[in-house]
Structure formats: structure tokens, C-alpha cells
Amino acid sequence: MTHVVTDNCRGCRYTDCVASCPVACFHVNEVRVYIDPAVCIDCSACIPACPVHAIFEEFDLADDQQHWIRINAEAAQRYPVIRTRLAPLDGADARRQQLGL
Amino acid sequence: MSIPGTEGQPLRVAIVGSGPGGFYAAEALLESGLQVEVDLIERLPVPFGLVRFGVAPDHAKLKSVTAVFTQIAEDPRLRFFGNVELGRDVSVRQLGALYHAVIVATGAAGDRRLGIAGEHLPGVHAAGDFVGWYNGRPECADIQFDLDQEVAVVIGQGNVAIDVCRILASPIDALRRTDIAAHALDALARSRVREIHLVGRRGPVQAKFTPKELRELGALPGWQPRVDPGALVLNDASQAELAMPGFVHAPRNLDILRGFAQAPVEDGRRPLHLHFHRAPVALSGRSRIERIELEAQVLSGEAGAQSATPTGERLSLPAGLVLRSVGYRGTPLPGLPFDLVRGALPHRDGRIVDTGGTVLRGWYATGWIKRGPTGVIGTNRADSVDTVAGLLADLAQLDTLKAGRAGLLAQLSADRRKVIDFAGWRAIAQAEAERGRAGGKPAEKFVRVDDMLEAAVVAGAPRSWERA
């Protein structure tokens, strides 16, 4: 099992999840973050930390979201680890509103 | 006078408590970019707090966070002071005089009582003591839990309550390959518990457990979680709470509970009853606990602020073992203010304040002793980052000229205190791993402080009082 960051993160990248990750399993690119499944210890601290509800336990992913498991695993290999919070992206609050959150 | 944290004037910080809150505070200081000297003071000879003594032995993946803590401890600017207790070996006044800043991260090990008749009866325990017992916590090693009983009642709606149910219901072979304490493994192997009741005052939406823990109850071989479907019918406020930010786990919990409620009862499986809207009102028995009286509750009030009130309807259950997990409290530290209502240190943004609200310069709090017993391991990292950010913002106000580590070492060696450093802990951990190997366990923990000290010493770990 692992935890997975889904599409809501794109364009927000609030990174509150990163501060609450006990094992530095988040990786970041210009638009969003990903979780390295080999490092995540399933503590779930990131789930309530995310303002846009982007993070799920693998077990709880809807059928049409299953592809995010592979995307997270692959992207985590490609992008650098992020260990401290960044400022949200420009437009994050607008996207959050658009998401109805 | 220069500000602490610069060349030649390192910021000297003592952190009291080496659980997650303490380690993440250390990490934040080490990554601050300043010159720092961080001393991590731990009451026991062994580090990691509730990761060692709280996280259930069958949750090995969660426990692997100790690898991160070990990495933090390996930083040469950090020193571990095991077997040193605030209040016993060093006072608040002394620590404050030695360091620019002190971060208190002592957690919340005390338990809240139910406050009902019969709570003193043998067979009624704090769930936290049961957790400490199976995890080899020295203070809990000699408690006797009578597992000759057939019915166990666990009171509470958080992950501790679920952990306790799961350990009681786990097949013994699933526990044999964990680092569960040997005395607990022996007792659980002979357990006669065949019926468990998990009892909570509030409803499924307000329950504090996480979906991962709840789901595990459905995967216990030989046991079946049972829920009255009527308990899952929500009032309007609970329905509204499902979409509120403070209830992020509730929709998943509700799905899982509905799954439990709909599953046909299988006769061969022992029942694990999940009761909602029921609160204990009395415990009774002749010479030990025999029955528990529950009273039905109804929720009322605004969404997000509902409270439970009794309806008068009662239910009586036989009970041979009662474990309560209805909240945890920190322990007051002599010389520091304390918020008796919250059971935590009074603070403003992590700065400890006195009863009048005045900041105690140089004193900070993080983890459960700061915010109360909420959240999971990672929650403490964000919390400690916040506390350390406050400390770093205060640098110009801190007293300068502090003796720091050298001063603490001098004092402890004058008192001939046995201090266990991280090499000492490694020797203990190695001895525990060797003890575990024979039985196929990752470790067989020492449950006596003296045995821990001896393992550290036998391996030739340096002790400050010898070197001084």
C-alpha cells in the first residue's frame, strides 16, 4: 500500500503535505507533487493536510483514478525530493475555488 | 553581544523528549542554516518515544520511521542524552540557565479516566497501559492483564482503541514475528478472549480512527466486525459534517462500517461488536469487573460541534476485561505552567506562556504536550517546524552566553549520572536484535531500565560520567 497524489494538486501545489511527511517521500515539479511509494510509510498525515483533497490511500482510489498509482511511482523517480513547504503556485486559490473546495 | 546562531556563538538548544515531536524539532534546527548545538534529552535509555512504545508491533512500516530519526541523530551537531530526566536529573531552572532555548516534547502519556462507579475494579485498565505492556514499556511491564476472560470491552473511538482490539484479536502467529514484548506474546498466546466490544459515545462520523485502522478490523482471521445498521443512520448535522474539513476521514470510515454492517453474520467467526452512541455509566463485579452498563446517547447541536446526551435507555454487557481509551493527558513538569483542562502546556504559537499569558522567554513546546493527543506521526513534523520557526524568529530576544552541552555534561558527571548517548542506544538495539534472532523476531526489547543500561555498558558504549 501507499498514498497517491491525484489531479487536484496540479496548478495548486500548496505543499502543506510536505511539511507533515515524516519520511520525505514527496517529489516536486513545476506544477505539482508526487509520492514515492517505496518511501511512504502510510501514516496518512498528508491526507487531512491537503487543502484540495488531492491525496488518497491507494486502497481508496476510485476505479477511474487507478492510473495515478503508476504516475506517482514513475514521477517520483524523475523529480527531486521536497522536504519543506513552498509558496503555493500563482492561481492556486483560484483553482481551489474552481474545484469547489 | 552577538545573536546566537552565528559563528563562534552556536544556538544551543535542549529538546526534552525523543519521540517524533522531539526528533522533528531537532531536524528543523539542524536544517535552519544557523550554527546550532542540539541536545536531545530522553528520560529512558532508549529513544523514539511512542514510535517504540505506542505504534503497534504489527505496524512495522510505520515503525520504520525510526530510520529517519536515526539519520537525524547521526548529525554531529546533535547529541543524545538518554537516561536523563527533566525534574529528576536536571531541573527546569538549570536547563533554562544552560541553553538559549528549550523545546519540551514530552508527549501525553497520562490517561483520562471514565469517572464512573467501579472504575477501580481489577480488570479495568487504561488502554495506554495495555499498549505499553505489549510494547515493552518499562512502567507497564509488571501490569497483569487477565486474558482468561472471554469478553473484552474497549472504550474509545480512536486508533489506540482499534489497535488494542486488533492485538486482542490477532492470530498469535501474526504477532510472533513482530517485536512485541515476550511477556505479552506469552499471555496473548493463552488468551481466551472470544468476544470484543468497541464502545463509543459518539457516532461513526465523529469517530477519530483512520480508515486504514478501521479496515484492518475486517481482515482479522477468525473474527468478524459487527455493526448495527441503525447506528449508521445519520442525523442532518452528521450528514453535513461528512463534507467538512475536520471530518476528512469520515466518508471512508462510513463506507467501511456500512460494509461491516451489510456482511452476513458468519457463525464460525468471533464477534467484534462496534457500538456507537453508547457511553459507559457503571462498572460492576464482586471482586473484579463482571459487567458494564452502557447508556444510549443522542447527538445534537450544530454540525461540527455536536455533543452526546444520554437518552436513558440502558444496555448491560458481561465484561471480563475493560480497557479505556478516552483521551490522553500530558504530565505537568515541575517549574513550568500547565493547562489542567487541556492536559497540555499553555502556549502561543509554540511559545510556552504562564497563566497570565506572558511568554516564558526561551521555552517552547511541540507535539502532544503542545497540541494535545491528536494527529499521526507526520502531524508532529509540521508541528515541530512551526515551533522552531517561532524560536528562530525570537533569536534576538534570547539570552546570550549559555554553557549548553558542556555545562550539562559537567553537571551530569558531577552527579555521576549514567548518560546513554546514541552509540549506547545502538549497543542496546544490537543486543535487542540478537535476543530477537533466536525467536525469529526483529528484536526482543529489554523491558527493564537496568537491562537497557547494562546492554549499553556491556558493549563498551561511552558513558559521560566515566569520561569526565
Report on the structure:
Chain A is α+β, with helices and mostly antiparallel strands. Chain A has one domain: Alpha-Beta Plaits (2-Layer Sandwich), CATH 3.30.70. Chain A is 27% helix and 12% strand. Chain A has helices at residues 16-19, 46-49, 67-78, 92-98; strands at 3-5, 26-28, 33-35, 55-57. A two-stranded antiparallel ribbon of chain A has the order 1-4. A two-stranded antiparallel sheet of chain A has the order 2-3. The longest helix of chain A has 12 residues, at 67-78. The radius of gyration of chain A is 12 Å and the shape is globular. The model of chain A has no long low-confidence stretch (mean pLDDT 95). Chain B is of the alpha/beta class and 468 residues long. Chain B folds into two domains: 11-109 and 329-467, Rossmann fold; 113-326, FAD/NAD(P)-binding domain (3-Layer(bba) Sandwich). In chain B, 33% of the residues lie in helices and 20% in strands. Chain B is built from 18 helices and 18 strands. A seven-stranded mixed β-sheet of chain B has the order 3-2-1-4-18-17-16, with helices on both faces. In chain B, strands 6-14-7-8-10-9 form a six-stranded parallel β-sheet. In chain B, strands 11-12-13 form a three-stranded antiparallel β-sheet, with no helix packed on it. In chain B, α1 (20-30) packs across α14 and α6 crosses α7 (159-169). The longest helix of chain B has 16 residues, at 422-437. The model of chain B has no long low-confidence stretch (mean pLDDT 95). Chain A binds chain B through residues 1, 16, 19-24, 41-49, 53, 57, 59-60, 83-85, and chain B through 20, 24, 31, 61-62, 64-65, 68, 210-212, 215, 245, 248-249, 252, 375-382, 385. Chain B: FAD binds at residues 42, 50, 86, 368, 375-377. Chain B: InterPro entries: FAD/NAD-bd_sf, FAD/NAD-binding_dom, Ferredox_Rdtase, Ferredox_Rdtase_adrenod. Chain B: This is NADPH-ferredoxin reductase fprA.
